[in-house]
Amino acid sequence: MTQQSQNQQIDMASARDLPPEQAAFFYLGPSKQVAEGAVFLSSFANVTAFTGDDGVLLIDTSQERFTGRMLQDLRDNYSKAPVEAVVYTHGHVDHVTGADTIIAAAAERGDRRPRIIGHRDVAPRFDRYRLTAAHNDHINTIQFNLPPATKPFTNAALTYPDVTYDQGMETRIAGMTFEFHHARGETDDETWVWCPDNRVLCTGDTFVWCSPNAGNPYKVQRYARDWADALEKMAAKKPLHLLPGHGPAISDEGTIEEALLSTAHLLRSVHDQVVAGMNGGKWLEDIIRDMDWPATDKPWLQPIYDHPEFVARNVYRLYGGWWNGDAADMLPAHSHDVAAVLVGATGAAPILDRARKAREDGDLQIACHLVDFVRKGEPDNKEAWELWRDLFTERTAEERSLMARGAFKAAVREAEAKLQQLG
Ligand SMILES: [Zn+2]
Questions:
Q1: Into which CATH architecture does domain 333-422 fall?
Q2: Sequence ranges of the domains in the chain
């Protein structure tokens, strides 16, 4: 098994039945032992079990509803030893909400309660999730196109870490040596794990088989440059196995190095261009217009979740304020009031005509901006809502970024609801 795994590079054959470009991110394959004492438990999110003679260290818990199956797999096929500790790679709900299940399973076996280890900023993250649970539930229904009844934050079982660290921590667990490294990247509370004994790297969501989630339009700040730094530090360890937060494991030294460094390059390129633009006195929209976008043609850099443009906006947000440079947008009127005045002055028809022309010319962005004035300025204009619905249906079909598609689908849903109301 181990030898075969070492020769295996990227096995996407058993990816779920999804469009090929999405298969890797949502990959749920068989579990496998990748090296002595290291088991990759493919799940959502992935879990790694380091299995010693007398104990097990788990890296992440997966999302609660997958944890039972993951534990069963571990017990049936790899180890019966007690879970000594669980390390959180970061506090996102798809990585940590199975902790209660793991603790309950230990109690049932008569084992000691596993220690929960995480970066010191996991706890403030959980506090924030509690403070803004309803907001995050709402936002997630848009980002992931979920039914409104889904409440992943209100219903999240958050088990706070018992052991925290700041910059780094070296320890022995289950008879093996581990380095826990803190980084900021997708989140501010990240831990990536290095096991020097078998040269296994657990990246958490610092590597997830798609263009980095360093720009998410729905969520709090990400850290593109720190993320690139972390990827370069990981590559310097020369891992034999890369076990990511999502998607399949990679067990080929050359591929791992290329995957880590090309991702770092993308982030650094976007980061440095935005900073150069800011220092050059440019406003955000001009920076975006003038960007020389890095290539995303590697299988692990496809912009199927986040989008490099979002990363650029996020870098600007890290270093700048919210003002866009337009004096009218400093202490502005509500956009609906502006639209009402404009549509009142011109009438809706010429704006909608111009929008249809833009659509025919293939300029869906401009068409959407134009229709936006009418749907806001004349909220009962049926034609505007029909066009709004059709434009975003078209853009949903063309767009690869799941985060962008989420917003587009929400626009379609809003238009459909409005049209039903208008009869
Ligand atoms: Zn994740």
A1: Alpha Horseshoe (1.25)
A2: 2-267, 268-319, 333-422
* pLDDT tens readout for residues 8-19: 333 333 333 444
Q: Of the candidates 361, 358, 282, 348, which has an alpha carbon nearest to the alpha carbon of residue 315?
A: 282
130, 120 contact by CB (below 8 A): no
Whether the model pTM is above 0.90 = yes
Question: What spacing in Å lies between the alpha carbon of 125 and ligand 1's midpoint?
Answer: 15
Task: Inform me whether the pLDDT recorded for 270 exceeds 50.
Answer: yes
Kindly give the distance from the C-alpha atom of residue 218 to the centroid of ligand 1, in angstroms, as a whole number: 15
Taking the centre of ligand 1 as the mean of its atom positions, its distance from the CA of residue 115, in whole angstroms, is 21
In the chain, the amino acid numbered 101 is T
pLDDT digits (tens, 9 = 90+) for 323-362: 999 999 999 999 999 999 999 999 999 999 999 999 999 9
Q: What is the pLDDT of residues 206-235, one digit of tens each?
A: 999 999 999 999 999 999 999 999 999 999
Tokens of 291: 């960007």
Does residue 4 sit in helix, strand or coil? helix
> Does the N-terminal peptide bond of residue 15 adopt cis geometry, omega within 30 degrees of 0?
no
Dihedral, 208, 211, 213, 217 alpha carbons, nearest 10: -150
Q: Cα(247) to centroid of ligand 1, in Å?
A: 10
- In the sheet that holds 168-173, the strands lie side by side as 168-173, 176-183, 190-195, 200-204, 241-244
Residues 6 or more apart from 24 whose CB is under 8 A from it?
Answer: 12, 15, 209, 210, 247, 248, 299, 300
Closest CA to 58 of 15, 93, 101: 101
Per DSSP, what are the bridge partners of residue 97? none
Query: Tell me, which fold does domain 2-267 have in CATH?
Result: Metallo-beta-lactamase; Chain A (3.60.15)
Ligand 1 centre to CA of 406 (Å) is 17
